[in-house]
Amino acid sequence: MRTFQPREDEIRLPDPNDAHRRRYTRRYRLKRGWVKNLWIGTALLMLCFPLLPVVLALGLLSAFLSFAILDETA
Fold first, then answer.
1. How many CB atoms lie within 10 A of CB 4?
2. Is the dihedral of CA 74, 22, 29, 40 positive or negative?
3. Cα torsion through 40, 45, 47, 50, rounded to 10
4. Model's pTM, two decimal places?
5. Contact present, 20 and 51 (Cβ < 8 Å)
6. Rg of the chain over all Cα atoms, to the nearest angstrom
7. Alpha-carbon distance 16 to 22, whole Å?
8. How far, in Å, CA of 17 to CA of 36, rounded?
9. Cβ atoms 42, 58 nearer than 8 A
10. What is the pLDDT of residues 1-17, one digit of tens each?
11. Residues contacting 40, CB < 8 A, separation 6+
């Protein structure tokens, strides 16, 4: 996988005045990993229980949790 990614010296550092600089931090990347795993688990549950009320409830709950995890104030 590393062959497809740029080398460390080719990665640009974000501008300190950039409004999205928090997205480049290690903490935010860890949070994104949590959200990715949350959605994978939710998708597996949706496949196990393909009923409309279950799918809608899990989807809305996952969306809420995703926004709560990635909230920049936390």
1. 5
2. positive
3. -140
4. 0.72
5. no
6. 17
7. 10
8. 28
9. yes
10. 667 776 666 666 667 77
11. none
